[in-house]
Design brief:
The protein is mostly helical. It has 16 helices and two strands. Helix 3 packs antiparallel against helix 5, helix 11 runs antiparallel to helix 15 and helix 15 packs antiparallel against helix 16. GO terms for molecular function: metal ion binding; prenyltransferase activity.
């Protein structure tokens, strides 16, 4: 343990600082101004739907995991970079001042959030989950219409990979490729999209625990795990540390979904910011329907223990932010 790791982390303060940088980056990159290099700027209505889907809402867990993993592998280097740029990130144009590993991490944090946002836009549409409430406000297709929602999701997905491939020299080509590969695998047919396909095909069925775990490992867990690994890929780490972080990401990814299943039956819509009881009403298999409420809660706690044990095996000097996020994921009430 490093000397800095011997002291408790003020997680709320850490989250507040990270979110300030991420929110400003998203606001700047998901904008008409950001598309000014194109021959024709993005249509105003499309950009409005994209911004509605991304800004002003959400836990931002995935970007936080990116930044926490980056901080862990960078150790003292990140604090130097962040402290040096802390004042800069509050003024226009500051994103261009962030260079090197921190630039890669910030772009990765925003890219993974854009993929998450696009998936929510599409999942909420009538052809999928047909939901009308997301992040405490009407879903995108309710607000803008189905066609605009479909295009907004498509555009957000494309923008995510554009962020990871800047046309300057701020990210080395090999790093761009690695980050794109991690994100694409997590989002595609062997990740989030594949898990959603299994979910849609499982309505009304009673899955085994292994089948349910596989579905959620893909649908939810893959992108959360990729967030951790993309953060790690923005720094420097050995094989043993990489494997430990993979185990951490897998455990947290599954734990998040187990807790989501619990909250779907224990919290109300106002608290969740989305329609409560939706899974049960749609006759979808969940950990609560399979295991019961108490056992599902216990399973989430067991996954948290697995995640924290993986961090202990990582050999990293300071994993306080990752540990704090793991505890927040499992102990949250919304």
């Amino acid at each position: 343990m490093s000397s800095s790791a011997a002291f408790p982390l003020d997680l709320a303060d850490w989250i507040s600082h990270q979110l300030a940088a991420v929110e400003q980056a998203l606001d700047q990159w998901v904008s008409v101004d950001a598309s000014a290099h194109l021959e024709h700027q993005a249509p105003v209505e499309l950009m409005a739907a994209m911004r509605y889907a991304v800004l002003d809402g959400g836990k931002r867990l995935r970007p936080l995991l990116v930044m926490a993993a980056f901080e862990a592998v960078q150790s003292g280097l990140l604090s130097q970079v962040v402290n040096a740029s802390e004042e800069a990130v509050t003024v226009p144009g500051a994103l261009e001042q962030a260079t090197g590993p921190y630039q890669a991490a910030l772009r990765s944090a925003c890219a993974v959030e854009l993929i998450h946002a696009y998936s929510l836009v599409h999942d909420d549409m009538p052809c999928m989950d047909n939901d009308v409430l997301r992040r405490g406000k009407p879903t995108v297709h309710v607000q803008f219409g189905q066609a605009s929602a479909l295009l907004a999701g498509d555009a957000l997905q494309a923008l995510a990979f554009e962020l990871l491939t800047p046309d300057d020299a701020s990210l080395p080509a090999a790093q761009q490729a690695q980050l794109c590969r991690l994100l694409a695998r997590a989002a595609g047919c062997t990740g989030m999209a594949g898990g959603q396909a299994i979910d849609l095909a499982s309505v009304g069925l009673r899955l085994t625990e292994s089948q349910l775990q596989e579905m959620h490992r893909l649908k939810t867990g893959a992108l959360l795990k990729a967030s951790v690994m993309m953060g790690a890929a923005c720094g420097h780490t050995g094989a043993a540390t990489w494997c430990a972080l993979q185990e951490f990401g897998a455990a947290i990814g599954l734990a998040f979904q187990v807790v989501d299943d619990v909250l779907d039956v224990t919290a109300d819509s106002a608290t969740l910011g989305k329609t409560a009881g939706k899974d049960a009403n749609s006759d979808k298999p969940t950990y609560v329907s399979l295991m019961g409420l108490d056992e599902a809660r216990a399973f989430a706690q067991n996954l948290k223990t697995q995640a924290l044990q993986a961090l202990q095996r990582s050999g990293l000097a300071d994993v306080r932010a990752l540990q704090g996020l793991a505890e927040m994921v499992v102990d949250r009430t919304y």
